[in-house]
Amino acid sequence: MRADTPSGATADALLELRGVSKTFPNGTVALDGLDLDVGRHELLCMLGPSGCGKSTALRLIAGLGEASAGRLAWPNGGSAGDIGFVFQEPTLMPWATVFDNVHLPLRLQGRGRRRAGEAVREALALVGLDDFAGAYPRELSGGMRMRVSIARALVTRPRLLLMDEPFAAVDEITRHRLNHDLLDLWQGQGWTVVFVTHSVYEAVFLASRVVVMSARPGRIVAGFEIAEPYPRDDAFRLSESYLHYCRQASAALQQAVG
User: Of 175, 176, 185, which Cα lies nearest the Cα of 151?
Assistant: First the structure.
């Protein structure tokens, strides 16, 4: 695949990035000519070396910054208001209950606790935390705190969910469980997900498509579909097909680093 070719271009794209570049005030060029299509209902994983601009790309998609060049477009209608964002850390308010943490995006929209109650409870039910609405973050495990963060991102019912290495800080067993939970939610709710990770193994397990970014300044240098059916279980992690895709992703990542 040519580096300047949009990866996975499709007429059914939810979001298009064309020639997107980002230079910070200190002169650092984080992205240079990033071309990417994100398909509706896709689970897209972005791989790349540290500092290649993956997180910067997510922030530009979310409207948390402006590109220095290029454009972002929603060809089938939509906007940055249709986005939920899950960061690397749960970033919960320690003084607030689980309910109030999840309620925060709706409160910022002017919806009080009573009006937002049903939406908050539905979001907590999606991540299996219905019984913890009154708990505080300090009373939860790391995996549960990340579930609260996901519920907070989902409470506005976004069309696009951006996830920036959300499971990197938890232990491997919890990470596997959260991977399974994410796939269940994605299949059940029909969102589009863009998931940033450093883990080849996580990307191949989750993704319908993987794209690989070059070292800074970042751009897409490879991309391929994971042509395996869902749901995926632990047996898939032990399959020859899984290992084949992991080798393919690893080779692309090594080439990107080089």
Answer: 185
